[in-house]
Amino acid sequence: MLSIDSTIEHHFASLHELETKLKPAGFVISSNWDYDQGTFDLKIADAGGAYYFLRIPFYAVRGELDTPGVHVRIGKPFMLGHKYEAGLDNDIASGAVQGAFNQFQTPVDPDADIPSAYEEMGKQHLREVERLIL
């Protein structure tokens, strides 16, 4: 994980406003949100057996994330890499039923190093986010 300083950290806005600005730029709200926090994710690259993401966390400060009109505070942006093993998942203990619901491999390294080229790409995307939000 690589934390990145940004002028959007601590910015307060409606979640709807942020979604309106960030989704057209390729960001999605990750599926691991809960009622008081979540993240906007942008996949930077899928290269060399790893995925690299720019992640922008946010925290509910007025309302809950599943209610209209919720306002959030943006946390410190960061990049992360997930290294995976190409090919089939060798963990056959999970069985066919589990495979029907979870089709993704567990990362070999969930906190892989970020190559400098992808770090720079992430920072460029973050500068664009700053321009969109501020």
TrEMBL record:
Protein name per UniProt: YugN family protein
